[in-house]
Amino acid sequence: MYLIGDIGNTAIKICLFNNNLKLIKNIKIHKKNLNKNFINKKLLFLRKYNSKLTKVLFSSVVPHSYKIIKKTIKEITKLDCVELKTCNLKKFINIKVNRKQIGSDRLANAIAVIDSRFNYIIVDFGTATNFDIVIKKDYIGGVLAPGVEISLNNLTDKASLIPKIKLEKTTKVIGKNTKSAVRAGFYHGYSGLIDNIIKLILKQTRKKFKIILTGGFAHLFKSSIKGIKTVDTNLTIKGILKIALN
Q: Which domains does the chain have, with CATH numbers?
């Protein structure tokens, strides 16, 4: 069995797969709940599978959170948790940039889609909006833009007359009140940002790409972004699992 995890700045995903790659358990933990007692309670189910667990592999961009989870897993299962960037990834991908500067989640996303036939642009709607570019088996770099949710929250925190809103798809550009104006600005503004960055990537590389959207707002922006797109919100977990199997 395989215990797979993705530790992000906002949330943590932990998945348990059996040897047939069937998902047995799926846990999501928000960062605000991250403490040793809470994690211990969430992971107690692992005692049931101790004798069957063969590998524990995580991607992490938050060292402190990873340290807590790694220690808890060790106490429960007696197994060492391995971080993705410590693995030999050469069989999966050729990293053409400074490896230390790439988040483990971004490498997992790239490895999840990589093949020798197509080129990919991966747009990940997380704490930041990440663009990662894969040409055949080469990871050539990326673009980091402010995340949609963190930008929206920052605006409403700083501007006392702007209320908290939930970002939703809207066809209207001109708002009739503060909420609809902010919603239109963020939805169409980020759609334009994403389209323009993709356009510039195409111009610089002079290549064709498949576009993969992942992360919390992927479905929201699918129809507003030009070109043929695929949405896969489990992309990071798929990449980590792919590594764990080899």
A: 2-86 (3.30.420.40), 94-235 (3.30.420.40)
Where do we find the tokens 């570019």?
133
- Residues identified as active-site: 105
- Over 80: is that where the pLDDT of 195 sits? yes
Give the chain's end-to-end CA distance (angstroms, integer): 13
User: How do strand 2-7 and strand 11-17 relate by DSSP bridges?
Assistant: antiparallel
Please write the tens of the pLDDT for every residue from 29-82.
887 777 788 888 888 899 989 889 999 999 999 999 999 999 999 999 999 999
Sign of the torsion angle spanned by Cα atoms 77, 107, 125, 113: negative
**DSSP codes of every residue in 44-109:** GGGGGGTTT--EEEEEES-HHHHHHHHHHHHHHH-PPPEEGGGS--TTT-EE-S-GGGS-HHHHHH
Return the pLDDT at 209: 94
Please check the confidence at residue 151 and state whether its pLDDT lies above 80: yes
Interacting residues of 111 by C-beta distance below 8 A, sequence separation 6+: 89, 92, 93, 239, 242, 243
Q: How far apart are CA 107 and CA 89, in angstroms?
A: 9
Q: What's the rounded Cα separation, in Å, for the pair 177 and 215?
A: 29
